[in-house]
Amino acid sequence: MAAEGGGKEMNEIKTQFTTREGLYKLLSHSEYSRPNRVPFNSQGSNPVRVSFVNVNDQSGNGDRLCFNVGRELYFYIYKGVRKAADLSKPIDKRIYKGTQPTCHDFNHLTATAESVSLLVGFSAGQVQLIDPIKKETSKLFNEERLIDKSRVTCVKWVPGSESLFLVAHSSGNMYLYNVEHTCGTTAPHYQLLKQGESFAVHTCKSKSTRNPLLKWTVGEGALNEFAFSPDGKFLACVSQDGFLRVFNFDSVELHGTMKSYFGGLLCVCWSPDGKYIVTGGEDDLVTVWSFVDCRVIARGHGHKSWVSVVAFDPYTTSVEESEPMEFSGSDEDFQDLHFGRDRANSTQSRLSKRNSTDSRPVSVTYRFGSVGQDTQLCLWDLTEDILFPHQPLSRARTHTNVMNATSPPAGSGGTNPGSNGNSITTPGNSVPPPLPRSNSLPHSAVSNAGSKSSVMDGAIASGVSKFATLSLHDRKERHHEKDHKRNHSMGHISSKSSDKLNLVTKTKTDPAKTLGTPLCPRMEDVPLLEPLICKKIAHERLTVLIFLEDCIVTACQEGFICTWARPGKV
């Protein structure tokens, strides 16, 4: 693990850290907060959130940031790594009575130096549309709370739209609004549009068009966050019932689901090419899910408490040709990866080339990060050996330690890397490849050998148990008591969490039944990632993690927004 030293040093707050790219440095003069710089007493208040927008003004200083602290909302020019923050001059500041801002989102499509459209969600359920440059409050949605009385958990503009936006609530409902329409003076009447396993979508029945256009009911308990795929076609939602649900947004079809190890899922993000989804939550884990295969391909264990934000770093996601030519990315290449749209010779086409067998081998590494209530920032690399576990490991990156590598040669069976690959052994290859652990120290893998054979048979039948555990010898050597206890206690807790799969009959699914299925594989059935770095960077729980081109932005519940300069960008 990346914790340096012991004792006192462990509790010191880090102001810099090093990865293979170089040194990341906290810029203390670039810290944004309330103008008085007094730490906010955050007891019982909503998480501090940060939103960015670029208004493309001529000065080259087009970045703007918005953040909420308690009852207050601030809008500043963001100077990033270039200049010190001037807190005495917010462009806009608002203090709300009786309700608190909980989340916000800029419309990047319509933003100009003269006008921006900012949506703000509130703890009492309303959504406000404001323009912090023109200082106009344009509209208030769900004003009388007739649509939903519960806290707004997430609000986002629909990608590519100037007028549509989506709002999630702690009631477990999501609503689609159009800024041009009113919310009506009476509670809406709904008509069922589509129903599926643990979700339903209704349209609003009224003579004239009104908000909400659609009402989504998803899972049980709060809907904690949602994220649109880079191409805007799919919607990933994470809920307090512990489920990730991925929908085709336009056709309102359920594409796939995943269940947390235990507890609620709190955050979700997409890889820049839309192939992978990462979630974080109350099981202290980050979980990587393949969009194409609809299955968990790795879990990451580094946090000591709930994971509050996960985000991919599009600027450090690297793709290499077979001659080791690393590029950290020109704008051209990375815009492309970032937006997931088609463009020839782009990073994305290189990523897809990785999946075809006739071209030169391409090596790919995805970088993502997470922050948690343990005040720690973790960075993770998702590498070849995890993405394509049945490939030869010669191209695995240096910081990836694959134990006991007895992977079959490329021709000996298995499936091509692009396919689902339910079976990776062939009659001629009796030794299945071991379970890779990326970036790992010697670490125990709890064996399947002791578990009931019927459970194993079921798992094999459902194609979950794709990986065998380590050999007995390895297991004995690497078996730490502590790790065993952790795995054991996680299993124990998971049996208490209540997942209600079926909305109609409201029957509770026994978590023991989802554990060991493709919905929620056992810990030993998927690779366990170790963080590249895991650093304590704040006094209070962390609530923000955003990757920008020349820096990383984090924020904690005390209301301090920190800028970390990327290597060579100070």
TrEMBL record:
Residues 417-426 have a biased composition (Low complexity). Its main location: cytoplasm. WD repeats lie at residues 258-290. It comes from the Eukaryota. Keywords: Acetylation, Cytoplasm, Nucleus, Phosphoprotein, Repeat, WD repeat. Interacts with USP12; promotes translocation of USP12/WDR20 to the plasma membrane. Component of the USP12/WDR20/WDR48 deubiquitinating complex. Interacts with USP46; contributes to the cytoplasmic localization of the USP46/WDR20 complex. Component of the USP12/DMWD/WDR48 deubiquitinating complex. GO terms for cellular component: cytoplasm; nucleus. The lineage of its organism: Eukaryota, Metazoa, Chordata, Craniata, Vertebrata. Pfam families: WD40 (PF00400). This is WD repeat-containing protein 20. The keyword Mitochondrion does not apply. It is found in: Cytoplasm; Nucleus. It comes from Nyctiprogne leucopyga. Residues 437-453 have a biased composition (Polar residues). InterPro entries: WD40/YVTN_repeat-like_dom_sf, WD40_repeat_dom_sf, WD40_rpt, WD_repeat_creC_regulators. Residues 402-453 are annotated as: Disordered.
